[in-house]
Batch of 2 targets.
Target 1
Amino acid sequence: MIQYNKFTLDNGLRVLVHEDPSTPMAAVNLAYDVGARDESPDKTGFAHLFEHLMFGGSKNVPDFDYPIQLAGGESNAFTNNDYTNYYEVLPANNLETALWLESDRMLALDINDRSLEVQKRVVCEEFKENYINQPYGDVWHKLRALSYQRHPYQWPTIGKDLSHIENAALDDVQHFFDLHYQPNRAVLVLAGGVKTSQVEKAVRKWFEQIQPNFTYTRNLPIEAPQTADRNLILRSRIPADAIYMAFKSTERLSPDYYTTDLITDILAVGESSRLQRILIKDLQLFSEIDAYITGDIHLGLLIVTGKIMPGVSIEKAEKAVWNVLEDLVHRKVDGQEMQKVKNKMEAHIEFSETNIMNNAMNLAYYELLSDAEEINLEVHKYLSIEAEDVQRVSAEIFRKEACTTIYYLKQD
Amino acid sequence: MATLDRSIAPALQVPEHISLGNPKQVKLDNGILAHVINIGQQEVISVELVFQAGKTWENKPGLSMVTNRMIREGSAQLGAEELAKQVDFYGANIKTKAASDNVSVTLYCLRKFLPQVLPLYSQIIKSPSFPDREWERLRATTIQGLLINREKVETIASDAFYEHIFGADHPYGYAISPEDLESISVEDMRVFYRERYHAGNAIMFVAGKVSTDDLSMINEALGQNDWNARPRDTQNELPDFHYSPRELRINKADSVQSAIRIGLPLFNKKHKDYHGMYMLNTILGGYFGSRLMSNIREDKGYTYGIQSMLVSLQSSGYMLIATEVANEHSEDTLSEVSLEFDRLKNELVGEEELALVRNFTLGNVLNQINGAFNKTAILKGLYLYGLEIAHFDRFIRDIKEIDAAEIQRLARIYLNDDLMVKVIAGN
């Protein structure tokens, strides 16, 4: 249970405060409703590149990190397909420093060539480090591109291609900022050793005068239902064959979202989960295996991926995965196993709530998605899922014709 | 409304009271010292046992790691599958971690299930069975994991780095190979377990929302004389260190980036120069605003990130600078790092930068001791080195007092190019 107070400024900025008097620290989280889904197909990776530029100084503050560190804090950010999230952790006494900095870069970013040129290089190195120079690193680009034919989820946040980042121009940066970084498209959360009455004054002081100037209407292409299986074989110098399967899952706000989450827990969370127990331990076909949902706001993916043991054919391994998935469709999960994944989920949520930064991030995400109040209904939603739901949703998801499969094979 | 002057920063306060408080300690009936960190509103608890059974205690490379990993795979009472099933049923997690000096086995669970889960954890600790079948499987999957890691330039560079810092036959220096794992049997593990996993060799940390009842339950489960009660082990003789400063280039033809590791062997946190080195390291590469990040990422754009770290070990320690850079800039990066060494040796750090690093460090430490699980990690870092809370207080005082002259003195002793092991793995 995460308690919070909420108020909204006249400019549309939503503010949530989660008071935790036991800590001398404060977490600040500012989520903007813009992600890689808002990019045009010939300028991908831009939302994330832009996130880097947000640290290059704003109109009245030449450097973002210096004042935060001087205040004893740290700052970072992430971008995903759906949204962009900025956060700070600092001693609660110095909370206003973070408000000053976040408000100034919401008001007016200092957009300059030098910062753009350097961050383009930094992001290209990030791209190489995570997506090229790793065994299997390029698979996510291929898997997305194959899974989505129309929707912008077809490219990863880092961008389709290095050239998109290299070609980013200063005008694009200004335009992106003007269009997306608006108070009415943001959620600010303050958590930790803070008092609502005090921080409300400070928030109003720094944010109230920022006016929203542009209107953005999100109009994304809709992904047509997948009606035939899609397959791809990749080869490279890797030590083990691997398989990647992507199924169309649900939208984040679908009532079945929570069931898809439990389905992947049944499959892959814990040593006793089905994929681990059957495919790693009993049949010894895989050295590692995982299943998870991407949890995207629009139609997301349910991914099953594993590394195959030497001497095992990939077809045999794939067949064995299908057997496990089809079993969920054909046979109801028993009460004991249902209770297990619910207990796991409850523990997961309870542990997560021990951390003020997690709480701030989650509140902001839920408010951006629909309503922060939803976060406190989550446990109940998981606990009320029935075995019939698992079976029904499994039958909808685990269909051959809705599956995208990549074989990643060793090159001899 | 009055216009706001946004160019003026809000007033700052440097954290004044940074204290670990007085963590409770309880002696279990069999003598195990349990540190109790009772903080937080969430209904969760963790129980961790740390044993002196890390790499420095093994007589075969890899034995410590795999024994600790195999400890969860079945007990005298339950097979691996049944054990995992029961632990999972209660939503609990048992995590194992093996390091150079120590290993740990930690239980995380909802408090309401502690009575059900504690006996399972206790079985794992007191009567693991090390079944052959589980080892055959775990060996094969671990070997595959090693082979995948060996394809990464980061792994190639790190392995070479430790080998040249500590020597290929020292536990701090050698990397574990598939051949090492091939030669380990479950009998080796049983012997290693019997020798090292006993109550006298353990320290316990209990964190989260902890009641007196919980502690009695823990005492009942793990505080009795039914598991190997004998005095704490004393470290056997270790091979000599073989430290050979040099520049090494390892070619990996298909690589689009190079991994760089630069550093030297030092000392651990008990050394008189440690707190000064902590400051020096932070200035050099220990935070986002550090000189290496500012120069090599934010000015040159050679890398996504570059860090420098100071690592303590029971009988040594080291400093390590790590980064992955564009192949064409690997030599530039080496020279920029040397340049940063020179600047620290030749110029006093300015008051402004020193204040920045001081404030950052104090705020960062305040954050690191925030919450039960964070605080436990900090306390572990003290107690495992035989240090007390007073040492932490001294650290805070030193951070406030260390001046530019001291930092320069340390830079002149330790940041010398000819003392460094430098590894570039890439193309």
Target 2
Amino acid sequence: MNKSWGMLFLLVLICVVTAIFRPRFVEPGNLANIIRWTSLYGVMGIGVAFVIITGGIDLSIGSMLALVGSLFGVLMAQYNLPPAAAIMMVLVMSTLLGLVYGLLITKLKLQPFVVTLCGLLILRGLARATAGGSSVGGFQRLSYLINYEWGSIPVPFLPWINEGYWSFHKWLPSRGDQPGHFALNDAGERISLDWYDWVPLHPPILYLAAIAIIAAIFLNWTVFGRHLKALGKNEQAARYSGVRTDTMVIISYMICTAMAGVAGVLFSIDIGSVMPSTFGNFYELYAIAAAVLGGCSLRGGEGSIIGVVIGTAILRVLQNSIEMWSIQELEFAVVGGVILIGVIADEIARRIIAQRRASQEAALLEKQNASPS
Amino acid sequence: MPLLEVCHVSKRFPGVQALQDVSLSIAPGQSIAVIGENGAGKSTLMKILAGIQTPDEGEIRIDGRAVEIRTVRDAEKQGIALIHQELNLCDNLDVAANIFLGKEPRSCGFLRRREMDRRAAEVLQQVGLDIQPTTSLASLSIGRRQLVEIAKALASDAQVLIMDEPTSSLSTGEVENLFRVIHTLRQRGVSIVYISHRLSEIHHVADRVVALRDGRNSGELERDEITHEQMVRLMVGRDLDQFFPHVPHSAGEVVLSAQGVRVRGKAAFPLDLELKAGEIVGLAGLVGAGRTELLETLFGVRRSAGGSVEVAGKRIRLRSPRDAIAAGLFLIPEDRKQDGLVIEMTVGENITLPGLMRASTAGILPTRWEKSTADAMIQKLRIKTPGPGQIIQFLSGGNQQKAVIAKWLAMGPQVLLLDEPTRGIDIGAKHEIYEMMETLAHQGVAILFASSEMEEVIGMSDRTLVMHEGRIAGQLERGQLSEQAIMRLATGAASAATT
């Protein structure tokens, strides 16, 4: 939980810095986009978090997205299936692929890295074969699933930062003008601004909220979640305690690929067309990075859903910020650097806590030894 | 002048003071035995000598000079070699390559194979092993591998050989051979530090006995003082009959009946076994005799290769532990950190792990049940912890072991299988665990416990089953129990007579 607070702080920090230097960042349209994309990426991240908690990994998410997207489009366009049926079919397919992964990993004892690396290659190939080498479209009629504006939230100070004399570069003394919550019109007259603005909301945030709440309940309030964490930390001990370890691992992979399936459907609609050779490239790495930033340990046994959501948001904001600064060439370098710094900070914090605990332990032991019992 | 001296060494681990002001000294060519119960600090002391761990306080002197031993390489330079209980050899290499691993003779980076073979042959001869240096290690018996390990130590000019339980998996003939080798080494001026649970063999090898108890020196015995009773008194700090709270039990009906159970993997002899309510049965045998495998097969964590097990007349499948658990047959495993506990979770989470599903409705975490069960068990077993929310890693070995027992106590055991239940825990906790076994037996629980400690087997069991190379070699009633009788069966010397 402490870690989530740290990550939330990092998120706010990146937002504030970007907003100060690049006011465009806080335009309602831009914020709406960030929220939407965070939601879509977050769905993938939550899925992979389950697998990471078992101590496994899924490297095939990006390819899964491409396969789901291609198949989804082909089913609707070539086979004229109604969208609902097509969605059902691709979700069932992606879930079944998770079952296959799980069986290979638990029953044949193959390493998750190897199994899903093969999945990465195989699914990408299948995606390209499904689509016949060209891009797949026809998702426009479903765009309400992504773009319907069902509401909006007021966010304070947006106009002041965005248009007013409130942003950092206008504070420089040389301007001689007072900063404040007003703007100048074409004639150079002051016009006052509202102190808040409306950021539109789209359906993806609802999908993410629903999935995150269910996942968090699953992980924290059910026996399933406890068993999952126990087996992630020590599979042997969990087995010796009567936990169905194999079943749990299989279910985790099914959850992961099912979430990748959901993300695949949503991303196809959002982007509007699926190019099977590139669609979803590297997305598994974004999902894994978000989970790791959010507190999942690749050694297994640890992870929080809210952490994953915050981690995803950090990555999305960071990417947006990079665009604002026009340094796209450095995108991967910056993202990688931030993840690395986050992980190092976490490790250092962990050691300090462990040290403090050890010294407390020592004191406690001294006390016990000193007492005559 | 002593060759090696350990002066006032202390070492602390999280939750336990492993060594406290421990000293000992050895002259050249002398052989001393270090004895002590599990958890008395023997292994830690040896690891410090071998450079695997560094002492918090105190120093080590060689020829009167204080030396710094921080790594295994330092220890080797000082002429100290540790021969581990589990041998540290590479199966995939041949004998010469093993002997010179990490210090191969070479010129310009190229291996000088011929010289390596020649020097390997020399040291092999010194340990009385009549094999080619190019023999593959995998083809050798455990006894011969041990000699290879000794040869390896000699190849690096070891002056002090530390042997940690060298006989724990050897047959009688191999043990005699080992003693002969030790004898010749001592004549050549090599000092021996000998660690063993088998008190009966100590007067064959040791000039002097150094006893440890709860991490402190508890006394020394010179050659003519070495008797079984004296050694036991130094180890446990009181007479045996006081230490083991055993009173004979009146056994009830048969609760566990295993017929023709075959352990998978090893030589799969069909094993038959019956346990009655309220009796405590010991399971003795050498390391590798198949005790752990038998217990794991009964519990279902190790797949069986056939046979049937019934608990209270109801047959259980031997495919996963879940059946055994449902029937009230529980295993307290040998390796509590690997198999018994999720070491990074809390005391409460560990204690309640097996019972969660049963206590839950619709899969929701039964938080109230968790809390009450954890509190009750912590109190009942007197687990020393700041609270159920403490990460179990930070508890001492004894309290961790109590938590493993608590897991199953909370589930209402019918049959309890314990595998080395007192390994690596202090005397106080040990005594409490014995008392608990007694209490459970009086409540009608059938108990089968495997142990390598002769005292424990003799002190605690109503009857003892002795295993030898995958079979149950024989059974000893309480009246017949003695270290010699157990060893005769365990080494296969008397199996024909009793079965």
